[in-house]
Structure prediction request, 271 residues.
Amino acid sequence: MTDALHRELLELALEAARRAGELLRDGRPADLAVARTKSSPIDVVTEMDIAAEKLITDLISARRPGDGFLGEEGADNAGTSGVRWVIDPLDGTVNYLYGLPTWAVSVAAEQDGETVVGVVAAPMRGETYHAVRGGGARATGAWEGERALSCRPAPPLDQALVSTGFNYVAEVRSHQAEVAARLIPLLRDIRRGGSAAVDLCDVACGRLDGYFERGLHAWDVAAGDLIAREAGALTGGRPGERPSRGLTVAAVPGVFEPLQRLLEDFGAWHD
Prediction:
């Protein structure tokens, strides 16, 4: 992939995430309602998820008509260019539904199955995080200009602040709660933010030492995983594996391996 194409994809991802974020922030109706549910009655989709994905796919298709898409709200085609966009138009839908600020727009570009560009916009924070493979990770926010991102120095595991998330299927949530209960005495503490994309960027920013979750899809992690790795974090799934629906782990070097081992020992993954 050429540097020129890197820049083109990054600029397009930044524009798409910015415009979708503005739509979600400024266009949220006072009477926002659930449009449908997915895995369970509490796994919701709103009309704004659907509108944001349409905005993103329409914008990208107009500029790059040969590209493919994989989106949470149904976009799915291979395209002809070798580039595929992996989109979560609203990561943290339940937070958004309740008016909580931790939600984001996640836009990633893949080439030949590898993520090469990732953008996560968190409008209620006023922050946008982005990375190009091999080029580091950066963010814009309340500070002046772009800021290079770097994860924290590794603390001892018992001083690590780690985030996680919970599935919307009751039996899975119960198992995840059991894993969290076993981990809490071994860590500084556990957080639950409600957006995988934001959690991964918080690892990149040095606001978390680690993050793990079971049951994530490609669109949940594609952009955030690249941003975390480009900021110096390690990411994976079960030992020796890449992040997957079975398990996603991201942490600073020095925390990643012991956290991953504990998650393996506690059976935090699923096949």
Observations:
- The chain has a mean pLDDT of 94.
